Amino acid sequence: MMTQFATMTHASFDVSNIEVEKDGIAYTVDTIRELKNKYKDTKLFFITGTDAVLDLPNWKDPEEILNLCTFIAVNRPGYVTDTLDDKLDKLMKNYNGEILSIKAPQLKISSTDIRNRIEEGRPTKYLLPETVEQYILKKGLYKKNEL
Q1: Which segment of 43-57, 68-82, 83-97 scores lowest on mean pLDDT?
Q2: 81, 92, 112, 144: which sits with the fewest CB atoms below 10 Å from its CB?
């Protein structure tokens, strides 16, 4: 739900509920297979942090994932990137896939910090899209349970 609110003003994004509706474990490879079947002639991109991309060898069927879509690795704050290009090149060679590296402005934002701020009644302005912030406040999410 929050992903829909976060992307509602961006016409280029489409939120899928495939994993939400799935019974049991939702593996990335299964989700991407389903998306590829649904959008046969569309090039799929998987945007995630460099830490997750470097963990691909531990995912289910990483070679198939990289054959079905292009990964976009976004740098994360505090993550050492000195040897990142070499590591990404090695992954691409090992799994015969395409990984693009994006150097984005680094913001020190963590979901844990945001939840703690909400629980403590501290502001979250500029840390979340306004639509997501409104949804969280309206639903009373992450508020401290007072007994």
Answers
A1: 68-82
A2: 112
